[in-house]
Amino acid sequence: MEYLARWRMTKAAQLLRESDLPLSELTTTIGYQSEASFNRAFKRWGGRSPGTYRREHQRRGPTAESLGAATSR
After folding, report:
1. How far is it, in rounded angstroms, from Cα 26 to Cα 19?
2. Which residue in 61, 71, 67, 58 sits closest to 18, CA to CA?
3. Neighbour count for residue 52 (Cβ, 10 Å)
4. Domains of the chain in sequence order
5. 13: phi > 0 → left, psi -120 to 50 → alpha, else beta; which?
6. pTM for the whole thing?
7. Nearest-5° angle of CA 42, CA 59, CA 64?
8. What sign does the CA torsion over 7, 8, 10, 15 have?
9. Cβ neighbours of 17 (radius 10 Å)
10. Over the stretch 43-65, which tens digit does the pLDDT of each residue have?
11. Is there a contact between 46 and 13 (Cβ–Cβ < 8 Å)?
């Protein structure tokens, strides 16, 4: 049972980072019946809400600063 819970949260974290699925769809994809139960489980597992996790790990393009560093070499 613990393995399944860890796998679900690992998969959820991956989907939060790599997809734009709405949280309601992600919840059912992972196998939870309610968004509230998924939110509680994810927060217990990761220490923050799924929304906060997604904002912290959103894919970002290169910044002007990193582009400048790359061209100055």
Report:
1. 9
2. 58
3. 14
4. 2-71 (1.10.10.60)
5. alpha
6. 0.75
7. 145
8. positive
9. 13
10. 999 999 999 999 999 866 544 44
11. yes
Closest CA relative to residue 50, chosen from 42, 59, 58: 42
For residues 8 and 60, give the distance between their C-alpha atoms in angstroms, rounded to a whole number.
Answer: 25
Cα-trace Rg, the chain: 16
d(CA 16, CA 25): 11
Question: Token pair of 67, please?
Answer: 């582009």
The encoded tokens of residue 33 equal 């019946």
Residue 33, CB-side half-sphere exposure with 13 Å CA sphere: 0
Cα–Cα distance for residue pair 69/53, rounded to 1 Å: 28
